[in-house]
Amino acid sequence: MALYSAAAAVLAGLERGEGGLKSLVYNSGFPHVRQLYALVSETLRYASVLEKLLDGAALLQAEKKLAPQLAKVLVYDLLFGKGLKCGGRWKALARRHRARLEAELARMKVRHKVSRNEDLLTSEKAVSAAASQVPRYVRVNTLKTCVDDVINFFKRQGYAYLGKAASVEELKALSGKKFLLDLHLPELLVFPSHTDLHDNLLYTSGHIILQDKASCLPAFLLSPAAGSHVIDACAAPGNKTSYLAAILKNKGQIFAFDVDPKRVATMNTLLTRAGVTGCQLAQQDFLTVDPRDPRYSRVTHILLDPSCSGSGMVTRGPGEEAAPSAERLQALAGFQRRVLNHALSFPALQRLVYSTCSLHQEENEDVVKAVLQEWGSAFRLVTAFPSWPCRGLAAFSGSESCLRASPAETLTHGFFVAVLERCKEGAAAPSSLPAAAESPQPGEGMEPGAASKKRKKKKQQVK
């Protein structure tokens, strides 16, 4: 059983971003590292298939004390490996559910019109192809260093720096040990998709953050001035929070909320490593936070990235998770409308960014439209990042002010971002106000590099 416990721990560490596969395996303390590495690697290879098997057989619902990571390695060895190498309660559990798991595996083969287990992986090729196009994005953590020093560090490690990218096509053409400065975000470096930097000194010391480009957009477009009070409403695992702290230059106050204690603990580790100060973490459902609490009387900016279907994540397998039922989408959209309404009720709020990693209009444009209608002329949509190629769907007048991202058009995960601002007294209704009628705000009506160039950076030399 020690093998499966160790493998489950490695999978959990990977999910929490605690390191790369090799480092987690070799630091696990398990005596047979090759055996452990092989089991985890194969489990990861079959990950999307295993997730569907677990869902179809309802194994986690039947065995509520069974961790998902442990379930994956047990089911992999039971159905795809060389058979379980353990006894005791877990072998008894596997035997108890074996018939149901095998029946679900047979149904999967029929649906995919394949006869071999290995052939199930071919149905994931489209997703793998999309994932392979998305580069490795590296955000320079300006709380600890600066872009030039990080570039020089990688050059000393044998990487070739090609300068600032001029187009998305240049990012797509990256290969080998070459990297570029992103064409949109001034603190983002771009490496080929296969680049693994989890063991790199810059990552382990918090000088760089491995964060998809689309995930950087919400904090970048919120763009709070140093000294601002900011809420990150659904903050874990903390990458966006750490970017907010860098934009604030650790001056001001961030209130970061998440309801899951494990995710809060992970976020605390990440923020400490990134050198973030002036951030209050709270294990609390944001919907239970009182906007009238004096602690939040100076909150002018809110980043809201609520739970969603996750359908824009290219590492997901196709199927139910990528195409949730209408009932599931309706439930998510209802929650998202409630939490967005709650965020807009903070009395000093001036600017809010709403984002999801979903592709579905129900969770994106429809949520923004419904909430703006409820608030009348109090808030308006901002046309942020005018040169961004992917705009919101034509769901309502003004929805083109929103941003979308996708592997095909922006070489990122699928994402949606909307920027809302409080209207000045007597301003026009949110959806009808032309973007050009307002003077530019940070991230509005100008290229996103401009606001960043005005910031005075405090640099710490990379050794």
Automatic annotation (TrEMBL):
Protein location: Nucleus, Nucleolus
GO BP terms, alphabetized: rRNA base methylation
Protein name: 28S rRNA (cytosine-C(5))-methyltransferase
Active-site residues per Swiss-Prot or TrEMBL entry: C357 (nucleophile)
SUPFAM superfamilies reported for this sequence: S-adenosyl-L-methionine-dependent methyltransferases (SSF53335)
Residue stretches of biased makeup (Basic residues): 452-463
Cited CDD domains: AdoMet_MTases
Species the sequence originates in: Hippolais icterina
